[in-house]
Amino acid sequence: MNSSLVRAARSIAHPRRPNIDGGLPARSASTLAETLESQVPAKRLALAELKKNHGSKVIGKVTIDQLIGGARGVKCMLWETSNLDAEEGIRFRGLTIPECQQVLPTFSGKAGDGEPLLESIIWLLLTSEVPTKAQVDGLTAELHERSSKLPKHVVPLLNSLPRDMHPMTQFSIGLNAAQTASVFAKAYADGVPKNEYHKFALEDILNVFAVIPEIAATIYRNVYFDGIVKKDQTLDYSGNFCRMLGYDDPSFDELMRLYLCIHTDHEGGNASAHTTHLVGSTLSDPYLSYAAGLNALAGPLHGLANQEVLKWIQALQEKFAKEGKEVNADTITEFAWETLNAKKVVPGYGHAVLRKTDPRYTCQREFGLKHMPDDPLFKIVDTIYSVMPGVLKEHGKVANPYPNVDSHSGVLLWHYGFTQYQYYTVLFGVSRAVGGLSQLYWDRALGLALERPKSHTPEWLENFAKNNPDA
Ligand code: CMX
After folding, report:
1. Would you place residue 10 in the very low, low, confident or very high pLDDT band (cuts 50, 70, 90)?
2. Which whole number is the average pLDDT over 120-141?
3. Residue 59: pLDDT over 90
4. CB neighbours of 194 closer than 8 A, spacing ≥ 6?
5. CA–CA separation, 294 vs 176, rounded Å?
6. Which residues pair with 207 in a beta bridge?
7. Bridge partners of 92?
8. In angstroms, what is the span from residue 347 Cα to ligand 1's centroid?
9. Active-site residue 351, yes or no?
10. How confident is the model at residue 4 (pLDDT cuts 50, 70, 90)?
11. Cβ contact 285:179 at 8 Å
């Protein structure tokens, strides 16, 4: 591991304030809860200062187009854990994906030797610090221990659901049902003071992280196999999740680590993160807040796009097999135009914010080049990548003709025999919990307000336009 890069990354992710004598404070806090608690007073103070000194500054204007068009670009949310740049893509607490891959602890213990552990990203997103391996190991053990907090009625409830109910619907039901264990809801009902909410929210957040692999794996094993879920808590979070799903291949464990890390967070405005934040702002507990986020993720314009990509590729393969044509750049182009002319979207392409290839796509492509360069489906995805931006540019409607994260995730899973693509969004959902709920911790710690933007009727807008011709 390159130690100067780790130091640099630590200072990007978490610029430490000098002590009065000019030295840097020691990184002494050992558990996640202690580390967070030690950060709360300074963060509260910083936000209060920001509000006091700059609260009335104007940071943007809103047009009627934006009001009608899904609030694109409207600056109206505070989000701690990540930032999305249209050109560069995501940074988790200041770190790009390649930087995370270089500095965050991995399964072997050596940063840079394999994919980061999800526990490393949990630590980074919550605390803004690059954790040590010992801190990450402590968190792994804590999450394994907390996994016993799944209420006993949840698995029987999941077992009773119809097999043909979409896995995302089952996931949402499972997490909502687990809400009976909410420590936050009980504390609120008991009247704990507002400045203590975050402590109880953190209990729920860590418990949600700990129990969702079992909810998710139970759904997978029920819908497609024998319903039996076997844990291996000698492994990390992702490795154990793979065993629960029924996969026992170190290379697949690495894919799952990568997959779970890169899907965690994509700043605040995306539908799943925003929904979690919005519902949480009513002081719904973290279980209910994230279950709402899952329902947003289940939409085909958002997380469901990863299953749609596989469906699209299969339809393409079927069509050209029937016609006795091979799948190549020409036939893919033909199929893309058929999709666009039928007024349908090409799944896995385009983005509401990004204007370049999604770095989450790029790192999955690199994983494919390393682990499965000759896989036929991987090659098709690569050929799609070589022609689709050109097709979409020629079509002329799409703001971003480049692939997003969902364009690549399915093909990697497929390579390992994980072909049940209706389930893919559940994996996204296991990961997105980390971003949405890490932010929810800070929402409660910073006492963020109930979210309640203003809406207007069409008549109001028309009158406004009439009375303000120069607006
Ligand atoms: N195929 C065809 N048309 C597309 C398109 C695509 N991949 N992406 C955008 N368009 C269309 C839009 O539907 C819109 O058409 P209308 O004017 O008729 O409504 C027009 O191009 C302009 O849209 P945009 O400004 O480029 O994109 P938006 O911000 O409105 O939407 C997104 C963003 C992701 C919903 C859109 O690109 C899309 O539908 N992509 C395909 C689905 C997908 O991959 N979603 C996953 C996104 C990542 C995630 O959240 O998981």
Report:
1. low
2. 96
3. yes
4. 447
5. 10
6. none
7. 82, 95
8. 8
9. yes
10. low
11. yes
Q: Is the confidence at residue 268, as pLDDT, over 80?
A: yes
Please write the tens of the pLDDT for every residue from 69-121: 999 999 999 999 999 999 999 999 999 999 999 999 999 988 889 999 999 99
CA end-to-end span of the chain: 55
The pLDDT of residue 385 is above 60 = yes
- What digits encode the pLDDT tens for the residues 154-163? 999 999 999 9
Share of the chain above pLDDT 70, in %: 94
Mutate to test the pocket of ligand 1, among 274, 341, 397, 405 (most ligand atoms within 8 A of CB): 397
> 71 C-alpha vs ligand 1 centroid, how far in Å?
15
- Is 375 a residue of the active site? no
* Active-site choice (302, 358, 408, 415): 302
Coil/strand/helix, residue 89: strand
What pLDDT is recorded for position 109? 87
32 exposure class (CB count in 10 Å sphere: 0-12, 13-18, 19+):
buried
CA 191 / ligand 1 centre spacing (Å): 45
Distance CA 107, CA 99 (A): 17
Cα of 349 to ligand 1 centre, how many Å? 7
- List all residues whose CB is within 6 A of at least one atom of ligand 1: 270, 301-303, 305, 340, 345-352, 397-400, 404-406
Give the pLDDT mean for 25-49: 84
- Which phi and psi angles does 347 have, rounded to 5°? -65, 145
Q: Minimal CA–CA distance to 137: which of 258, 30, 217?
A: 30
Q: Domains of the chain by range and CATH? A: 305-415 (1.10.230.10)
302 a catalytic residue: yes
Please, are residues 404 and 237 in contact by the beta-carbon 8 Å criterion?
A: no
Kindly give the distance from the C-alpha atom of residue 399 to the centroid of ligand 1, in angstroms, as a whole number: 8
Residue whose CA lies nearest to ligand 1 atom number 17: 397
Tell me the C-alpha to C-alpha distance, in Å, between residue 17 and each of 11, 26, 131, 207, 221.
10, 11, 18, 32, 49
Atom of ligand 1 nearest to the CA of 271: 50
Determine how β-strand 89-92 pairs with β-strand 82-85.
antiparallel
